[in-house]
């Protein structure tokens, strides 16, 4: 898969030319280039310890992937932000992407779901293939418990289980593609509602 090298001045134009199928085109409006995010760590008061940890976990792998080529170090592929509403989780996520020079893809259920059978899974695959093309990329899933909640939940529709399985399959695939500088960053007010398999995939 061809990579699109990051450039603050050219990414918006290249982004218009990147998608090569209808499913990636549906995801494309959710992509925000780093230079258009407009939020930095300086805009976020306090949380100094959190910001310092994120610099090590997120920015180093996205900015210096060469440091992980030897296999001794593994880049972080998932971080979960949790806390009560109004604590700035979404703002922090955007600041992380900006500081790391990464594209920001804001994902919600409306981004993924379709009324047509089988298209939900294709949208999930398109999310990850598009993220690879505009990498480095942060895939941000706000209220992640609504998308990736417990699969044993009573009354859950089969389509939701398929979305979760497809998301986890593509997420796991990142470990075999070190050149795809992609991080899944999620936020929730209810971490205990997440599926256990999802929680295990968040390294922090």
TrEMBL record:
Keyword Zinc: no
Classification via Pfam families: AAA
Ranges of residues in domain AAA+ ATPase: 75-204
GO cellular component, one term: mitochondrial outer membrane
Subcellular location field: Mitochondrion
One example GO MF annotation: ATP hydrolysis activity
InterPro entries: AAA+_ATPase, ATPase_AAA_core, ATPase_AAA_CS, Mito_OM_Translocase_MSP1, P-loop_NTPase
Domain of life of the organism encoding this protein: Eukaryota
Keyword set, alphabetical order: ATP-binding, Hydrolase, Mitochondrion, Nucleotide-binding
Keyword Nucleotide-binding set for record: yes
Family indicated by similarity: Belongs to the AAA ATPase family.
PANTHER family cross-referenced by the UniProt entry: AAA ATPASE, PUTATIVE (AFU_ORTHOLOGUE AFUA_2G12920)-RELATED-RELATED, P-LOOP CONTAINING NUCLEOSIDE TRIPHOSPHATE HYDROLASES SUPERFAMILY PROTEIN
Stated name of the protein: P-loop nucleoside triphosphate hydrolase superfamily protein
Classification of source organism: Eukaryota, Viridiplantae, Streptophyta, Embryophyta, Tracheophyta
């Amino acid at each position: 898969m061809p990579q699109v090298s990051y450039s603050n001045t050219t990414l918006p134009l290249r982004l218009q030319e990147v998608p090569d199928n209808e499913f990636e085109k549906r995801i494309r409006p959710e992509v925000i280039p780093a230079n258009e995010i407009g939020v930095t760590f300086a805009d976020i008061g306090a949380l100094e310890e959190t910001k310092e940890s994120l610099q090590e976990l997120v920015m180093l792998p996205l900015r210096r992937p060469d440091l992980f080529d030897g296999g001794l170090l593994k880049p972080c592929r998932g971080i979960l932000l949790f806390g009560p509403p109004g604590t700035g989780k979404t703002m922090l996520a955007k600041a992380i992407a900006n500081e790391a020079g990464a594209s920001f893809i804001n994902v919600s259920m409306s981004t993924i779901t379709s009324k047509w059978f089988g298209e939900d899974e294709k949208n999930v695959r398109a999310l990850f293939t598009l993220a690879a093309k505009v990498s480095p990329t942060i895939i941000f899933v706000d209220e992640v418990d609504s998308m990736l909640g417990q699969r044993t939940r009573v009354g859950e529709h089969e389509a939701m289980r398929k979305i979760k399985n497809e998301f986890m399959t593509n997420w796991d695939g990142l470990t075999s593609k070190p050149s795809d500088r992609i991080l899944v960053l999620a936020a929730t007010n209810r971490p205990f509602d997440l599926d256990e398999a999802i929680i295990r995939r968040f390294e922090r």
